[in-house]
Give the backbone structure.
Amino acid sequence: MGTSSMKNFDLIVVGASFAGLACARTAALRGLRVAVLDRKPDPGAGVRTTGILVKEAADDFDVPAELTRRVRGVRLHAPNGAHTDHWAPGYYFLATDTPNLLRWMADEAARAGAVLQWGMRFTGGEMSENGVVLADLGLKAPLLIGADGAVSAVARAFALDRNRRFLGGVEWELAPDAGLDPRFLHCMLDSELAPGYIAWAVPGVNVIQFGLAARSDTKSEPAKILARYGERLGLRAPKIIGTRSGLIPVGGALKRTSRGPVMLIGDAAGYCSPLTGGGIAAALRLGRRTAQAASDWLDAGGEHPSAVIAREAPSYAVKGLMRRALDLAPPNWVWNATLGTAAFRHLAHAVYFHKRGDHGELPYETPHERALAEDHLQV
Ligand SMILES: Cc1cc2nc3c(=O)[nH]c(=O)nc-3n(C[C@H](O)[C@H](O)[C@H](O)COP(=O)(O)OP(=O)(O)OC[C@H]3O[C@@H](n4cnc5c(N)ncnc54)[C@H](O)[C@@H]3O)c2cc1C
């Protein structure tokens, strides 16, 4: 295809997930002509994440309540059957109906004016004098954003840094089960079955999400976690209704994330916590900031967006060090011995609640919350 028959955009976004859609919506609202392409057949297909939003993301980014379920506390389980509860007033996590959340985000981006194309895979492109040309797809633009996840084809095509260290995550979607205490994210610390990270059971939106992530040199087997912890968690008759899996980049923010008219955001740039594996908050926040900076650059002579994001992106330096410690996979007797100690509680609060104090038993605080919990228990 000659360049004259190309469709011109101001911005091409590769990858229509959290980072790409947040970026596309804001860019389109700001008047940029935005093309988004994704290899998925539909925005909610093939979800590869548990999809929990931390409170900071929920505060930054308004999402419809019917697509979320608030979870107030974290229950940590040791291999010996002991557990401890952690929570902080006013803090919560949002479990999400992730496929429908992504569909909603795609609709919002389209409503803002972005052109979304599904079933379209980026395989390569050329840098030109005025930006980037994707000859095979008939698209060109002065700026291309790679928001195509942990194993980024954009990074590879334009010789940018690529993620090298990963955790492998596997999750089963289980039918709702009244036995699981719905107030908590249940996290199992078990280095035999989830070396390098944890296993979890999340009381999600009409589903229980049960999974684990572990060092990528080991095999993740949810069945073994279910056999060891299912009964302790109160799961009565676990019925698998779906699966999710994916790679979590845990090497920290990459250094060379831009070159000329191409830049990376989200997991593609390594913006994912090496400690917790959480990346959605950063994907949403930096996706939107990238769009703001892109519009300032294109329309108002501002700095290149890659310079703005390089300043604002987290480096994950401390979390990177903690990741090295977790990679060592402390033997299970260490988890058993430390779970209830004051030092461990302090650490857990720093990780999950950002030091928002330590509290006793998690109450059902509001009548609304109680009613929600009772609804859930009747499933
Ligand atoms: C098992 C698991 C559980 C997780 N749980 C959580 C959690 O609970 N909370 C949290 O904050 N984080 C979690 N994470 C991390 C989180 O999912 C990521 O940080 C987040 O999804 C990053 O968003 P993104 O938009 O950068 O990339 P992604 O969500 O990975 O999306 C990349 C998109 O690019 C598309 N794409 C890829 N290649 C191409 C191509 N060549 N052409 C076109 N399109 C392409 C894909 O189809 C996809 O839509 C989890 C990760 C895993 C693997």
